[in-house]
Amino acid sequence: MTDANQEKYFGKAMKRIEDPRFITGAGNYTDDIVLHGMVHAAMVRSPYAHAKIKGINKGSVQDMAGVIEVLTGEDIQKAGIGSIPVGWLLPELKTPAHPAIALDEANHVGDIVAVVIAETRAQAEDAAAALEVDYDALPGVSAAGEAVKEGAPQVHPDVPNNVAFHWEIGDEAATNEAFNRAAKVVKISAKNQRLVANAIEPRSSLAQFTPSSGEYLLYTTSQNPHIHRLILAAFVMNIPEHKLRVISPDVGGGFGSKIFQYQEEVIVLLASRLLGRPVKWTARRSESFVSDMQGRDHESEAEIAVGENGELLAYRVNTLANLGAYQTLFAPAVPTYLYGTLCNGVYKFGAVHVKVTGVMTNTVPVDAYRGAGRPEATYLIERIVDMAAHELNMDPAELRRKNFIQPDEFPYQTPVALVYDSGDYEPTLDQAMNMMKYGELRAEQQKMKGGKKILGVGLITFVEACGLAPSALVGQLGAQAGQWESSLVRVHPTGKVELFTGSHSHGQGHETAFPQIAADELQIPIGDIELVHGDTGRMPYGWGTYGSRSAPVGGSALKMALQKITAKAKKIAAHLLEASEEDVEHEGGVFRVKGAPEKSKTFFDVALMAHLAHNLPEGMEPGLEATAFYDPKNFVYPFGTHIAVVEIDTETGHVKLRNYGSVDDCGPLINPLIAEGQVHGGIAQGMGQALLEEAAYDEDGSLLAGTYMEYAMPRADDVPSYQLGHTYTPSPHNPLGVKGIGESGTIASTAAVANAVMDALWHECGIKHLDMPYTAEKVWKAIRDARGGQ
Ligand code: MCN
């Protein structure tokens, strides 16, 4: 049962336990689930960005094969279903109603105007395509900068001038004062373009209502089933929370887009109640483009004040954040608290001031997408610092080094609210520069200057805030949710162990990493431990997975629950060994009396006796089970340096990412293989934004990039083999010392690749800034124009 040579699992690069299931097609996803009597829903989506719905002719499809029901906004209203709420409030925030089915106005292409339920998916989709909807097209607006202009089309009457909020942070007067004494001011006007999340598994929901008990079961693609249950039950369906069980089985990626409560989930719940049959909906890929929450979409003006000797004195930012047509769960938090507070980056600014205006437009709603606010902040600060280096004729690495927050200054209070927990930035810079042979790259760049191919080196040092918590702080800032995490450890009489967590794995490898933590604490083989997650009917309450919180917050809750188990197990062992607790040691998976190694009890002996309860210490409760709730004192602040190397063909404008190196610090690694996998995926996602991806809209709000023919995702041949390095600076305030790593790659790589492209163009022909994505056409034209049209 126990292994005397118990190996150490924390820190071991073991392969993921869950992967054989995924790579052999044995995963169990929502769309795989078939319930008896199940019918299918198909959404009728607005082809207009903005339109009055004058009428819907339900009769136009009632006789079509298999059609059971057509639902409209009126049916939603009649059933007393609430608007989908916003989970984060800002002062004077305007939150227009967000009905599950639009009532009389569609506000973006893809907005749901009706639903057809039929016996098969094909029948539902055929009828949805045939349903007669009478629209009156209205003027629409897609860009935030246009939407705030006088006379712009109004998206919602209750959001005057399309402005949902004004928000600011930092000291404006101190920032102005620092700008007054600057030797140099560097300015940037930059767009951070909109992105589509593109999880590999499209969203899917299946609801079953049981009339006899009044209970609902919802299988859905969720990153946080308890949040889904809370919001859907209490605010939308108006039912007791315990009457809704949400199961999020295997989920094929989320990248933030599966945090939110979507209209389709409400629709299948209601339809199942009305029809008395299970109802399923699964998105087609083209539906994902117009209905999954999108990411980024900022228009920013920023300035940096630099002193005589290259000191970064102050930073000023003014950003328009496009929120799209409705505000969803985290929408107000992403461009404010997740963005503005990170604008300081890794530097010792005297003052920072950030203003953000949240703008509503006739586009798909924008919310969290991998990194959520932090990639936008990192992109802006790291672009402008590179521009400053170019203009000061300084090496970008040296300007950064000169201005880093120093290791002895942690915990570090930034001018924009955050207190960075721990950090040591310079070693990541040194390691990355050595690893990538930075000096040689600069020499090569000089050699290639003026040739057909030119070289660019993009370097960034970043810090990010993740491990979303603590509840008290985020509550003060407007969150309508707690940010702690729970864990339940259940030891069975046989010594086999189930771990229940409120965190949710949808590609992050928790089924391996969490048992690694447990195997070390319990000192039992990892094969005796299984992680259970994603089911509100089985787990204690938890807040799910986003903001790279599972390792630092969920993992810490697990550690605490495990410590309760080992403390009780030791008491039982001491009692069985007739020794005092202080004389018992737990080593190599066995409880032994110090100095009398022949007297021992295994974890199995203890687990069995905890349940048989024949011989327990006086007054001890039977069983071996413990729950812990962990609410950290602060966020955690991973950091690192990334270096991208690009080669640009000046005759075609084609940008090739030639090399990429990263040195990340997220404290100790639970599983280096998983952590590196997270960095790999993250880098690809971030370079995708820099070079390829853009959810482009026309000016009225039609999505121009609505399929993979127009929306370019990175493919294997777009990315080089990465060189990865690490430093290890623990977080001082969680029991594992770990910081998150799930978003770092994306947060860093967009800025690194962008800086590499602009570094090449600056050195070649003095181009200061171009907006992403750096398509061949854009780069070629810029080079041609800079060379005077040659
Ligand atoms: N880990 C580790 N050592 C550390 C930190 C983390 O070994 N010091 C491991 C963890 O045990 C976990 C993984 O790395 O297995 C990621 O942990 P963490 O950084 O805590 O992030 P989360 O598990 O909370 O995942 C969320 C994060 C986010 S916010 C997005 S978006 C994202 C991401 O993870 N979406 C993903 N990575 C993704 N990966 C996949 N495959 N699919 C997604 O949708």
From TrEMBL:
Superkingdom of this protein's organism: Bacteria
Protein name per Swiss-Prot or TrEMBL: Carbon monoxide dehydrogenase large chain
InterPro entries: Ald_Oxase/Xan_DH_a/b, Ald_Oxase/Xan_DH_a/b_sf, Ald_Oxase/xanthine_DH-like, AldOxase/xan_DH_MoCoBD1, AldOxase/xan_DH_MoCoBD2, AldOxase/xan_DH_Mopterin-bd_sf
Matching SMART domains: Ald_Xan_dh_C
Pfam families per UniProt: Ald_Xan_dh_C, MoCoBD_1, MoCoBD_2
Naturally occurring in which organism (per UniProt): Deinococcus xinjiangensis
Domain Aldehyde oxidase/xanthine dehydrogenase a/b hammerhead as annotated: residue spans: 24-139
Gene3D superfamilies: Aldehyde oxidase/xanthine dehydrogenase, a/b hammerhead, Aldehyde oxidase/xanthine dehydrogenase, molybdopterin binding domain
UniProt keyword terms in alphabetical order: Molybdenum, Oxidoreductase
